[in-house]
Amino acid sequence: MTESAILRPPKITERHVNQLVVVYVRQSTLQQLEEHQESTRRQYALAKRARRWGWSDDQILTIDDDLGTSGASIKGRQGLQKLMQEVRCGHVGLILALELSRYARCCLDWYRLLELCAQYDTLIAENDVVYEPCDPNDRMLLGVKATMSETELHIMKQRLEDGKLAKAKRGELVFDVPRGYVWSVDEEIIKDPDAQVRRVIELIFEVFERRRTIGGVCRYLEAHDIKLPHRRDSFGHLAHLGPLEWHKATNSAVSNLLRHPIYAGAYVYGRRQRPSNAGFGSRGEPGRVRVDQGQWLVLLKANHPAYIDWKTYERNVEQLEDNKPAVKGYAQNGQALLGGLVLCGGCGWRMSLHYKDPQTWRYECENYKTKAKDGCRSFSGMSLDELIETLVLQALEPAAIEMSLRVIEEAEKEREKLRELWEQKLERARYRAQRAFEQYDAVDPRNRLVAQTLEDRWQEALEEEERIRRDYARQKAEWQTPLPGEQAEEIRRLAQDLPVLWHAEETLPKERQEIVRAIVDEIHAQVEGETERLRVEVHWAGGDRTAAIVQRPVQSWKQLSYYDELVDRISRLFEAGKSDAQISERLNEQGYRTAEARPFTRAALTSLRYNLGLKRAQSSKPTDLLNLAEDEWTTDQLAERLQMPRASLYNWIRSQKVNAEKRAAQKRKIWVITADQAELQRLEALREQGTSR
């Protein structure tokens, strides 16, 4: 018996030694790989033990593909998958690891490996202890150790999380802070030392206060060539700040900035957490999800310098939630005033806005489309918008002057802030150009390889400075000059007549929508049956409510709730000898409207009267009053006699190919053509000549 046979455990037979031995090496993290090198060395040293047990060097396979990979899941572990593939090939007699937890810390992955080893009679070794998966006792022991290994992983995680939470509750846990903030040398959160970075962050909150949408903020930043700051290769620590870069603003970046409570001076930990079911035995590393403010693990207000106060932060978050399609939404570019504000009086759902064309729109309940509930309707929105417009103008009259003056002040303040930001950009460009010149000036002119590169950098910096200077000059030219005293006084005067400003061409639909949203919380609207009556209740921002009835357009006259009354009124006026124009005027004075919810016109009244069977006696045609001679014809008569279009006959009259004159009949003048038998033959020949062409 050889010396190796004496030293190796009895479970290892010659059949196992004639096959491969796999040394499996794994470290959980890259940090362990760098700082715990002794553990790595011990795992690689297992190959020596395999040699002592009788394996030669060409029979030893070391798999170390999983260095820096957690054992919580098989996902991403190329080494373990390679190990299992080697076992499936049936030429592995033994697999070696420093401890069983190196193989897996998930029971599902562990038992998968265990079944493969039992199927192909492969032994499993933990340091110097060998297990035989086919043996029931060894299998039970391996199962217990696998459960302990999996439990140990969760205990370690929980211990680390508890330590982080305890430190976070004291406000001492250091994490990567967002743009606009850095960690001081004393481990305190402070604003970024760069003035331009701070000014851009402040400007974003100011623009959102006016525009109320993320898209509006991004469009504003793009229009004024303003980009978001980003420090590359930096954990946000003042001691080792990375270089400052400027990136184009995106919706996600602006959204994250507006939603982050750190800008309100709050130290927060636990805004994103793993689901409650992602505990013991979960597969892989489940993603974190955003939770409500009441579920945050740590919230320390007034912890560091803030860009906005806490109330502004809460108002911004509420606005972002309202901007979602399923809720109130935000001001759009269409003509409709009330998109997102109208609620169905039947079911309480928010009604959607649909445009037929730019000037025609409807408010529609989702339950009406699906026929899910009775009482839900779709109705034309123009009448409702007109009612709300009237109520809003009445409510705004006392504050009109103050609003106008505040707009003037805010416009001038915004202009000053943009000037300051452009000056900072220009100053930064000057510094870069000066710095590039100093580097170029300091190099030895004879070293042309370096000097040429530095000269190119200097030239690029000068061109960038000139570009910013030109853009700044163009921007200043586009800005409106400050309002002189005469124009300010004119606005004060117009503010006293708010409807003039409301209907002015310069006032955009979106601006009217913003005004309505500022003072109206929601509007409940419900149609009374199939009639034209739309019952409306306006909920104002201050808590007051206003109820009203508005007439909506309907498809049929008979849908009008006052149809019988209207028919009786028209019949009486008709029998009294009133004309259609007089009847229409009288109905409008009494508040009656058409099925389209419009004032009566003569044409509308005539159409309705004919439908009701109210017809006036036929009067004689003007042509009947003409005393025509035997050889005289009207245009209708002659066109019928010659069997030709009347339009062609009028062309003959204009070109004087016929003998025609105008005669008066019932305050009208009618063409009369003289044509005896010979003239008729000439005209017939002229007609044939024109037809042949």
Task: Based on the model shown, name its key terms.
single chain; 693 residues; alpha+beta; Rossmann fold; Hect, E3 ligase catalytic domain fold; 5-stranded mixed sheet; 25 helices; elongated; Recombinase family protein; Zn_ribbon_recom_dom; DNA binding; DNA_bind_recombinase_dom
Strand content: 15-25%
Q: Please name the CATH topology of the domain at 14-165.
A: Rossmann fold
Specify the number of helices: 25
- CATH superfamily descriptor of the domain at 14-165: Resolvase, N-terminal catalytic domain
Protein name: Recombinase family protein
Coiled coil: 401-475
Keywords: Coiled coil
Domain Resolvase/invertase-type recombinase catalytic: 20-171
Write the layout of secondary structure elements.
Layout: H1 3-7, H2 14-17, E1 20-27, H3 30-35, H4 37-44, H5 46-52, E2 60-67, H6 78-88, E3 92-97, H7 107-119, E4 123-126, E5 129-131, H8 136-169, E6 181-183, E7 189-191, H9 195-211, H10 214-223, E8 228-231, E9 244-247, H11 251-259, E10 267-269, E11 272-273, E12 289-290, E13 298-300, H12 310-322, E14 342-344, E15 352-357, E16 360-364, H13 366-370, E17 378-380, H14 382-396, H15 400-442, H16 448-478, H17 485-495, H18 498-502, H19 509-519, E18 520-527, E19 533-540, E20 545-551, H20 563-575, H21 580-589, H22 602-611, E21 632-634, H23 635-642, H24 646-654, E22 660-665, E23 668-674, H25 677-692
Parallel strand pairs: 1-2, 1-3, 3-4, 14-18
Antiparallel strand pairs: 4-5, 6-7, 8-9, 10-13, 11-12, 15-16, 16-17, 18-19, 19-20, 21-23, 22-23
Helix pairs in contact: 7-8, 9-10, 9-15, 15-16, 15-17, 21-22
